[in-house]
Inverse folding.
């Protein structure tokens, strides 16, 4: 048995639980660059600035929502980024936040997968998982597509 294995076994025997996990390291410079257009897009959601949102995305990209439709039926909703941007409303109180993003980068292609919450007027309205795919062109990352699950039950900050 390895030294690490012996440590884990000893820790489990003394408390019945595993030792606490080590926190993830902060994102590298390249990972931070991938997150930059996502964070900038979230800022435009809050301000309702549709013109600025379109600077961070590919116009031919898509927003795909999987979950309950406004009428309560499970479904898939597809919007172009232009359609999505046209729905942004200044002063709506909309805030979206992601946590613990998993980031994969291969050359000029990146993927971000992260749990999210949406607040409207200071109250959690929905949650789920965001999936972003991004392309780097001329040194800048842009969002090609956003796909997300959405639910209203079991959402916490």
């Amino acid at each position: 048995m390895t030294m690490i294995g012996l440590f884990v076994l000893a820790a489990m025997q003394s408390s019945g639980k595993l030792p606490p996990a080590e926190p993830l390291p902060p994102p590298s410079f390249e990972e931070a660059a991938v997150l930059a257009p996502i964070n900038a897009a979230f800022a435009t959601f809050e301000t309702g600035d549709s013109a600025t949102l379109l600077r961070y995305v590919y116009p031919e990209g898509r927003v795909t929502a999987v979950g309950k439709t406004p009428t309560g039926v499970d479904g898939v909703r597809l919007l172009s980024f232009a359609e999505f941007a046209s729905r942004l409303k200044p002063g709506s109180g909309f805030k979206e936040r992601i946590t613990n993003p998993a980031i994969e980068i291969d050359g000029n292609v990146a993927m971000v997968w992260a749990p999210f919450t949406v607040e409207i007027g200071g109250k959690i309205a929905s949650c789920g998982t965001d999936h972003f795919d991004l392309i780097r062109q001329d040194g800048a990352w842009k969002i090609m597509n956003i796909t997300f699950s959405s639910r209203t039950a079991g959402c916490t900050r």
Summary: The first helix runs from residue 3 to 15.
